[in-house]
């Protein structure tokens, strides 16, 4: 693909690095931004820069946040007795959009995948165990809301074994309304909401 400007070529090259964006789509976006008001392009660039350099992760659940504690963990109306464990921040957003869950979360930051060299030590599993310990812990139920892929099931199995040491805590998993091999973020809100409401307790 030939470009009349090196600046356009550079912009297209960077945009094409985004997931799901091919070079033709990247070119269309670049030309759109070129024709847009200067303030529009500047606002976009500023928003992206602030997101990248100023966003933080919650000290408790590892959800994205503007402060040390995310808005969910800081909300006194949320049920701290129920912790929903997810692999990715996108899963938190997907579940929140259902409006069916009122507990708190714990974001693992991925799933166990030996092929990709990701083991339990690479995830936020130990901080989850720390949340369960101590006299101040309010946790009564842990929901494993992890995508039902091979890696997701491996992660859920590992977590179930680790959580068995907390005999007083119920371990449940979301109902399999989510298709096997699917990703939570792509599930429709009705199916995902029903999966949360009709979650199943894991056998010990």
Structure write-up:
The chain has 204 residues and is of the alpha/beta class. The chain has helices at 6-15, 23-35, 38-54, 71-74, 89-96, 125-132, 150-163, 189-197, and strands at residues 56-57, 64-65, 79-86, 103-107, 141-144, 170-173, 200-201. A five-stranded mixed β-sheet has the order 4-3-5-6-7. Strands 1-2 form a two-stranded antiparallel sheet. The radius of gyration is 20 Å and the shape is elongated. The model has no long low-confidence stretch (mean pLDDT 90).
Largest sheet data: 5 strands, mixed
How far the N terminus sits from the C terminus, by CA atoms, comes to 58 Å
Helix proportion? 40-55%
Cα shape: elongated
Keywords: DNA damage, DNA recombination, DNA repair, Metal-binding, Zinc, Zinc-finger
Function: May play a role in DNA repair. It seems to be involved in an RecBC-independent recombinational process of DNA repair. It may act with RecF and RecO.
Protein name: Recombination protein RecR
Family: Belongs to the RecR family.
Protein topology:
Elements: H1 6-15, H2 23-35, H3 38-54, E1 56-57, E2 64-65, H4 71-74, E3 79-86, H5 89-96, E4 103-107, H6 125-132, E5 141-144, H7 150-163, E6 170-173, H8 189-197, E7 200-201
Parallel strand pairs: 3-4, 3-5, 5-6
Antiparallel strand pairs: 1-2, 6-7
Helix pairs in contact: 1-2
């Amino acid at each position: 693909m030939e470009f009349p400007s090196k600046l356009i070529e550079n912009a297209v090259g960077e945009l094409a690095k985004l997931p799901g964006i091919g070079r033709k789509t990247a070119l269309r976006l670049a030309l759109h931004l070129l024709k847009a008001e200067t303030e529009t392009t500047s606002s976009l660039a500023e928003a992206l820069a602030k997101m990248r350099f100023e966003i933080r992760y919650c000290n408790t659940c590892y959800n994205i946040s503007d402060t040390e504690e995310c808005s969910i963990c800081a909300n006194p109306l949320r049920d701290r007795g129920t912790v929903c464990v997810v692999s990715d921040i996108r899963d938190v957003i997907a579940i929140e959009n259902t409006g069916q869950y009122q507990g708190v979360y714990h974001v693992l930051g991925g799933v166990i995948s030996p092929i990709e060299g990701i083991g339990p030590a690479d995830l936020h599993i130990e901080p989850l165990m720390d949340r369960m310990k101590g006299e101040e812990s309010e946790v009564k139920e842990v929901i494993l809301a992890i995508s039902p892929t091979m890696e997701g099931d491996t992660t859920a199995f590992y977590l179930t074994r680790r959580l068995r040491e907390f005999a007083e805590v119920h371990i449940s998993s979301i109902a399999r309304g989510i298709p096997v091999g699917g990703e939570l973020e792509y599930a429709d809100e009705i199916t995902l909401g029903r999966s949360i409401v009709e979650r199943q307790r894991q056998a010990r």
